[in-house]
Amino acid sequence: MRRALGFVLIGLGVFAIALGLLLRLYAYPRLAKIPLDEKTTSVSTGIASDVLIVLDEGKDVRVHHNVPLTSTMLVEGNLLTPDAKPDGNIAVWREKAQVVDDMGHIVDASIRQVCLDRTTSQGVQNCSRGQQYITNKQDSHGRDIVQLTSQVGQNFKFPFGVEQQSYQFYDTTLRKATEAKFVAEDQIDGIDVYKFVQTIPDTKLPDAEAVPGSLVGSSEPSVEADRYYRNVRTLWVEPDSGIIIRGQEDQHQELRVPNSTLPPTVVFNGTLAFNGPTVKANVDRANDAISQLALVATTGPTVLIIGGVVLAIGGVLLLVLPGRRPRGKRSADPRRPKALAGTS
Prior knowledge:
344 residues; alpha+beta; two-stranded antiparallel sheet; 22% helix; disordered C terminus
């Protein structure tokens, strides 16, 4: 019985160790992937000291001042694309973004779709033709202008297991990724986060714009102007899941008429940041992800491997250590004198 129990414990120990390694090496890489059916909404609010608003079907084009703004971004997974396969490593996410003022006037709007590596959350190039695009402009007939473009760099989130290093984060205005530098550790609502700052210097955007002369101080009915853009984007990221808990942008845009002495016209200057409900929702999502990832990456494997080692050692000890001898009747000591008759 003792020998059989030893083998049973060794078998259970080996099984537990193997299961712990299986969780860490097999289950974790499959859990640490962004979903195909993503659906999240982020809301940012702030004040713009200067913002260009187009009203009355383009007849009223003016810069307004000290305007409260609300930016809403809806991100959904597109399951209808050929690249979004359940057993594949590419997810296709579509983002619909809109910025409105306190009167409900649309300040800016865009739609984009990007193919993402499900492990790194980076935009990839090897996606079906026509599946990656950005739309944020309209032609003279009010039709959306679709720009087909891959969006290489981090999009929407950071990779699982974020390091204290720089990452290339995609900027939709520049149409390219630039460096987001790690600057500090921080904490938001009890969650440890890494703080990253992406500083985009004053940059001339491609394609000059035809704008009303009155907008830039010209007497001409219409002039060509270049748009310049700069931004400081700050991101607080939960490192295990890569989820962005809080985001903030300090953005500035202005129009400059080339070869002219006209001063620049500021068309946007303001700060927008995630509102309270958005931060709370991100904290809740991160907590869920942390628990699931820890179960298969650290807690589960650790408990199983340690428990398996203890069981295996116990089984080996049962096999190699001698058991206790059964207790029998004690024999009489021949050296002990027998009791004399009549003395007991």
